[in-house]
User: Which sequence fits this backbone?
């Protein structure tokens, strides 16, 4: 006797595939109950800790007959109990804020639509939405009319694609990429994936503010020209990972124009500040870039992943990545999504970005950005202490350590202080930077209040006496 292949809805069973003929009441119930679990998990965040001490795990392997609704929800609950909790007011370690409510809903719809951004006929409305939204970002950043972009799964991929486009534009296989020593580690991955030798990525000194040293960049560009070597790109950073520093974009752009070199700006952290006119001066010169990485997930609360690569000349994406899709009809719009980036199959991640931005509005975007900087300024004032060295790159990050400690002393102090803070409900990160360990605070969490910051500053001050 053969197993039944009848996949029609049954009254009390969650079928593998929902009926295309009528709304599935069991699916509706399942999604409601799963949403209840999520709402409860978010709504009780402040009663727990950001990083769970116990991480229960359900069974991994699928069972022979498959699970029903109750068991699936029970397993989901276990996974949630062991998850990092970005909605906790003390979650201040990383660039991972709580999710926007509209973005959560859009992620669900994205999964249900199951459209594929590979080709226009697989995602007709969404392909157009992505192209239009990228154009809107370009317009807000001051890029010219022919600009555009593509969404990507994270800033690492956006940076890689930016450098691939730069190399295609240069018309060579090998060359040098110049960046600061504080540039993101994804550039090392990009060089490896592109098959460049280790010495191709030249990391230059930074100035006292943490930005790329202009004299060092000028000297490196002049040396490459003198030696007849090709500079594939200069990568400027608008928001370094540890101290949130912004490279002098205007001056770097002038040097790149003088040398005829591609300028890629990794603005994964800081680029969103250019969307709000009062804070746009923080990103002065960003509009002069040839390519830009921007990650709305890092501060605006767009659910992961939400990154994009923006190009001054959108056609350069096609030049770098188009292979032809002979099994697809030609697009009615500019390009198939799979022809303007490294990724072929892609989910419609544009939905959560688009709906999240529509929920916030321009004033809401400004409020998120302004409040993050206000929290940073508050905490910096509360931490004012001659015994404490605090690095502030101008964005919503701070790095701190005792001023007089040697490297072993700062390593010990930061480890002990981090453990104390975790016991009190605050999660800070502990990066290694400039020969020392530091505590890093990211102030992008909208649930963190003045009283939380006062408690945090008090605990840190208490540790300075130990």
Assistant:
């Amino acid at each position: 006797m053969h197993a039944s292949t009848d996949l029609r809805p049954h009254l009390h069973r969650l079928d593998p595939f929902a009926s295309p003929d009528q709304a599935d009441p069991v699916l509706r119930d399942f999604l409601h109950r799963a949403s209840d679990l999520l709402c409860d998990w978010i709504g009780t965040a402040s009663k727990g800790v950001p990083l769970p001490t116990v991480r229960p795990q359900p069974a991994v392997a699928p069972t022979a007959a498959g699970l029903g609704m109750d068991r699936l929800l029970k397993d989901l609950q276990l996974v949630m109990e062991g998850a990092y909790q970005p909605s906790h007011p003390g979650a201040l370690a990383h660039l991972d804020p709580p999710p926007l409510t509209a973005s959560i809903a859009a992620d669900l719809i994205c999964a249900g639509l199951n459209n594929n951004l590979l080709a226009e006929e697989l995602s007709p409305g969404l392909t157009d939405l992505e192209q239009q939204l990228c154009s809107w970002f370009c317009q807000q950043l001051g890029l010219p009319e022919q600009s555009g972009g593509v969404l990507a799964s994270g800033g690492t991929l956006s940076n890689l694609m930016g450098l691939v486009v730069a190399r295609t534009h240069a018309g060579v296989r090998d060359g040098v990429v110049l960046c600061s020593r504080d540039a993101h580690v994804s550039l090392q991955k990009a060089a490896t994936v592109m098959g460049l030798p280790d010495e191709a990525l030249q990391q230059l000194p930074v100035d006292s503010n943490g930005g790329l040293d202009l004299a060092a960049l000028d000297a490196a560009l002049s040396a490459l020209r003198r030696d007849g070597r090709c500079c594939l790109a200069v990568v400027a950073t608008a928001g370094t990972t540890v101290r949130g520093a912004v490279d002098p974009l205007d001056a770097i752009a002038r040097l790149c124009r003088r040398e005829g070199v591609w300028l890629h700006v990794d603005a994964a952290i800081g680029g969103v500040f250019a969307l709000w006119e009062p804070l746009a001066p923080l990103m002065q010169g960003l509009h002069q870039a040839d390519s830009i990485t921007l990650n709305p997930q890092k501060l605006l609360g767009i659910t992961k992943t939400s990154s994009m690569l923006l190009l001054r000349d959108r056609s350069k994406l096609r030049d770098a990545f188009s292979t032809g899709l002979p099994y697809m009809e030609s697009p009615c719009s500019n390009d198939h999504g799979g022809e303007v980036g490294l990724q072929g199959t892609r989910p419609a991640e544009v939905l959560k970005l688009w709906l999240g931005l529509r929920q916030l509005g321009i004033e809401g975007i400004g409020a998120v950005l302004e409040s993050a900087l206000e929290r940073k300024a508050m905490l910096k004032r509360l931490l004012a202490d001659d015994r404490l060295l605090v690095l502030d790159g101008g964005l919503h990050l701070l790095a701190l350590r005792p001023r007089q400690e040697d490297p072993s002393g700062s390593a010990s102090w930061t480890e002990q202080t981090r453990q104390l803070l975790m016991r009190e409900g605050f999660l800070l990160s502990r990066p290694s930077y400039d020969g020392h360990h530091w505590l890093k605070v990211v102030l992008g969490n909208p649930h963190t209040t003045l009283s939380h910051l006062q408690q945090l500053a008090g605990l840190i001050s208490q540790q300075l006496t130990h």
Notes: The first strand starts at residue 148 and ends at 152.
